[in-house]
Specification:
Number of domains: 3
Distance between the termini: 72 Å
Shape: elongated
Helix content: 10-25%
Largest sheet: 4 strands, antiparallel
Strand order of the largest sheet: 4-3-5-6
CATH topology of the largest domain: Immunoglobulin-like
Structural class: alpha+beta
CATH architecture of the largest domain: Sandwich
Length: 285
């Protein structure tokens, strides 16, 4: 009967010299022996075949071995092997260690994310409207993190998986993240306009709050006059005359100091079929 031996380094239970002697002794009585010598892994190879992080090192070669023998060699239920065959793609929304890019700047969520960054693969971090959760280990840590988040919050969504940010806005369109610093006595206004290349108004964008702040009040002035604030190298940076637009105003609760955030969606074209999303992360002192 053909056999496939999967070995790696280091192995605290069976040193390399030992398993190579075992292989040689076995081959004396049976020539149908294949050895898959996996390159050195980060941890003890005693958990080589049970750790999803290592699946890609040996599973494809095992499948080829089974296929050669005419045995089943394809994933019937690929969802059970998410870290290998169904890992979510990176969205390039932010770098994995960029804390300021988190869609929520709640103190507890930031603390949990710091812990998540120290966890071993596979790992998943999930964000909801007012809660965050993470899980590592097992075949699919995403499921565990999503279930835990769903017990505490609505609209739970995967933010990061392993070493990649995979977060997508719950809305269609581009996502922009801005960070500002203010005092609890200030009011911040975000002015939304739509201009053509000649600085003329195209339309007054409609604005909708997607996630309200936890530590402040927010309001929308649907049609008002203001000065655009485009920054170089945008060609619209030269547009400095007052125009019509929509204003989003935020004010923190009295005497509050800490982190807060809110998310709003703005109209991106005249017929209101495309939208963009803005995440505002606020540090209040």
């Amino acid at each position: 009967m053909p056999t496939l031996w999967v070995e790696s380094h280091p192995d605290s239970l069976v040193p390399e010299a030992t398993w190579r002697q075992m292989q040689a002794a076995y081959q004396k009585g049976d020539v149908h022996v294949s050895v898959l010598d996996v390159p050195t892994i980060k941890k003890d190879s005693g958990s080589l075949t049970g750790n999803p992080e290592n699946f890609s090192l040996w599973m494809p070669k095992m499948d080829a071995f089974l296929q050669k023998l005419g045995l089943p060699a394809q994933d019937v239920q690929p969802g059970y092997l998410p870290s290998m065959s169904n890992a979510p793609p990176a969205t390039h929304f932010a770098k994995i260690d960029d804390l300021e890019a988190l869609p929520t700047q709640d103190d507890k969520a930031i603390a949990q994310y710091k812990i998540f960054l120290k966890k071993p693969f596979p790992r998943a971090f999930v964000i909801g409207d007012n809660a965050a959760s993470s899980e590592s280990g097992g075949l699919d840590p995403r499921m565990g993190a999503l279930k835990r988040c769903a017990q505490m919050s609505r609209n739970c969504q995967l933010y990061a998986y392993n070493d990649k940010v995979v977060w997508k806005s719950p809305l269609h369109g581009q996502v922009a993240v801005h960070s500002i610093v203010m005092t609890h006595q200030q009011t911040v206004g975000v002015f939304q306009v739509s201009l053509d290349q000649s600085c003329k108004e195209q339309f007054v964008p409609k604005v909708k709050i997607v996630r309200a702040p936890l530590h402040g009040s927010i309001g929308i002035v649907p049609d008002t006059k203001g000065i655009p604030s485009y920054q170089p190298p945008s060609p619209l940076a030269r547009c400095t005359q007052p125009v019509h637009g929509s204003l989003v105003q935020y004010r923190p609760f009295s005497n509050y100091a800490g982190q807060d955030s809110f998310v709003f969606e703005e109209q991106a074209n005249r017929d209101n079929t495309r939208h963009s999303t803005t995440v505002m992360n606020i540090s209040i002192h």
